[in-house]
Amino acid sequence: MNRSKYTALYILFDLIAALLAWGCFFLYRTHIQEGKPYEQALSDPNLIKGLIIIPLTWVFAYLLYGQYRDVLRKSRLKELGQILFVSFFGTLAIFFVLILDDEVRDYHRYYHSFMVLFLTHFGLTEFFRFTLTTRIGSRIKQRKIGFNTVLIGSDEKALELYQELENARHSEGYAFVGYVRVNGDPGILKSLPCLGTYSELPEIIANHQVEEALLALETTDHGKINKIIDRLNGTGVTIKITPDMYDILSGSVRINNILGALLIQISPYDMPDWQRSVKRLMDISVSALALILGMPLYLLIALAVRMDSDGPIFFRQERVGLVGQPFWIYKFRSMYTDSEARGPQLSSKEDPRITKVGRFLRKSRLDELPQFWNVMKGDMSLVGPRPERQFFIDQLMERAPYYKRLHRVKPGITSWGQVKFGYAENIDEMIQRMKYDILYIENMSIILDLKILIYTVLIVFQGRGK
Question: Which residue in 64, 234, 372, 456 could disulfide with 407, CB within 3.0 to 4.6 Å?
Fold first, then answer.
C-alpha cells in the first residue's frame, strides 16, 4: 500500500481545483464585472501570477490544517465540514490581501465576487476530494487496501470480534497479521497465528509493521488494559477497544461508524490537527528567528566556553524521542570533558563536573540554545517532555512503566516539568517531574505551550534555573 501515492493525488487534485477556481474567478472579475474582452483578460499577467501562487497557497493552508495526514482514513462528512471551513476563511484572507483595495463602481460587487470565488473553490475542491475519498473507501471495502492489524486477546470476545470483522460483507480495512495472548493460555482463537504475549508488543509491532491494535479482552482481564496501553504508547499504532456494557451505560462510548464493529478508538493524537500544524509552524518560525537573531549571543557563549576550559564548544549526546526513536541532542558544553568516564550520571547543584561558565549557562538555561537546531530538524519541539537517555529510561520504566507515554509526543527544549523542577538530580525527582509532563500531554494546546514558553523566558531572564 503506497500512502505517498494517495497523498500526492490529494495534493494534485487540490492544485487543479484551486487553479480552475482562480481562473474562473479572474475571468468573472475582468470580463463580466469590468467588461474586458476575453483576450485581454487571458493575457493579463496577474492571471498567470495568480494561477501559480494561489493554488500553492491553498495547498499550504490545507497542509497547515492537517488535511494530508492519514489520507486513507478520511470521513467524507467530516472532510466536507473541514473543506467548508478552510475554503471560507481562505477566501476571506484572499479578499483582504488581494482584492479589497480594488476600485469598484458598486460595493455589492465585493459580495458577488466573494461568493463566486468561495463557491467555485469549495465546489471544485469538494468534488475532487469526494471522488478520491469514495474511491479509496471502495478499495478498502473490497479488501484491496488494508492496514496491518494485531488482535490482542484470544478468548470468546476476541473470537467474536474477529469473526464479525472477517465475515462482514464490506471490510473495514483490518488486515490481521496475528493475535497476542493476554494470559499464558493460548485461548480458543485458532484462525490466526499467535505472535506472542502483550509484554512483547513493541517488538511484535516493529517486526510485523502493525498499524492498528484491537483490544478484545474478557472482563477478568480489564485490569491489564493500562499495562497493554502502556506497551502500545510510543509505537504509533491506532488503538481500539471493544467496550463492555458498563462503558455503554455510563455514556463513555462515542462512535460514528454506524455499520462497523463496536470499537472505541483511543486517539494517538493529543491535539487537533490544526493545532498540531500551528505548533509545528511555531516551532519552525521561532527556531529560525532564534538561530538567526541569536548569532551574536551564540558567538559570545562559544568564546566563553572555549576560554573557560579545554574541550569542544558543543556537547552532543544520544537521547530518546518520539515513538522511542534515538536522536542526537546538542548543547553548549557546561561540564569538563570526560565527565562521564565512569558511566552516565545525573548532575546536582554542587556537581564538581560543571564548569564556572557552565554553571551560569545551566542556571540561565542558555546551554539549551543549540537545541533550536534540533527543533528545526524535527527531532524536538519548543515545548514537550525533556528527552532522556536510554540508561535512565530503563531505570524509570522499572519504577514507573507509564513513562513510555511521554514518547507519544516530540520532546521539547522546555516543559511543564522543567519549569517546575528544572534539572532532575535523581530518579525520584525525574518521576516527580514526569507527572507534570504527563499532565501536559493530556492537556496539550497552543495556549498551554505559550504559557510554558512565557514562564521559561522569565526563568532565563531572572536566572532562576536549577
Answer: 234
**CA–CA gap between residue 55 and residue 281 (Å, rounded):** 20
Q: Same structural domain for residues 137 and 260?
A: no
Full residue range of the structural domain in which residue 434 is found: 273-462
Show the beta-strand stretches assigned E in 251-368: 264-266, 314-320, 326-332
Rounded Cα gap, residues 380 and 458, in angstroms: 21
* 92 and 32 in a common domain: yes
Residue at a domain's end among 227, 245, 266: 266
- The number of folded domains in the chain is 3
Please give the share of the chain, as a percent, with pLDDT higher than 90.
28
Within this chain, do residues 342 and 447 fall inside the same structural domain, yes or no? yes
Query: Is the same domain home to 432 and 313?
Result: yes
Q: Is 463 left (phi over 0), alpha (psi -120 to 50) or beta?
A: left
Show Cβ contacts of residue 210 under 8 Å, excluding neighbours closer than 6 positions: 148, 149, 150, 177, 204, 235, 237
- Residue 213's closest CA among 189, 240, 183, 175? 240
Radius of gyration of the chain (CA): 27
- Averaged in consecutive runs of 10 residues, what is the pLDDT profile of the chain (466 residues)? 84 95 86 69 76 91 82 86 88 77 59 87 95 92 91 87 88 91 80 88 91 84 77 81 58 53 68 80 91 92 90 91 90 85 71 85 87 92 92 86 83 88 78 85 87 86 64
Closest CA to 268 of 433, 436, 413, 441: 441
Residue-wise pLDDT for 78-126, tens only, equals 888 889 988 998 888 888 777 655 555 555 667 788 888 899 999 999 9
Question: 418: which 3 cell numbers?
Answer: 522543567
CATH for 162: 3.40.50.720
- Cβ–Cβ under 8 Å, residues 62 and 14: yes
Note the pLDDT of residue 270: 64
Q: Domain ends where: 266, 299, 332?
A: 266
C-alpha 214/C-alpha 173 separation (Å) is 12
* Residues 206, 79 share a domain: no
Enumerate long-range contacts of 298-307, CB under 8 Å, 24 or more apart. Answer: 298/369, 298/370, 301/332, 301/361, 301/366, 301/369, 302/332, 304/357, 305/332, 305/333, 305/355, 305/357, 305/358, 305/361
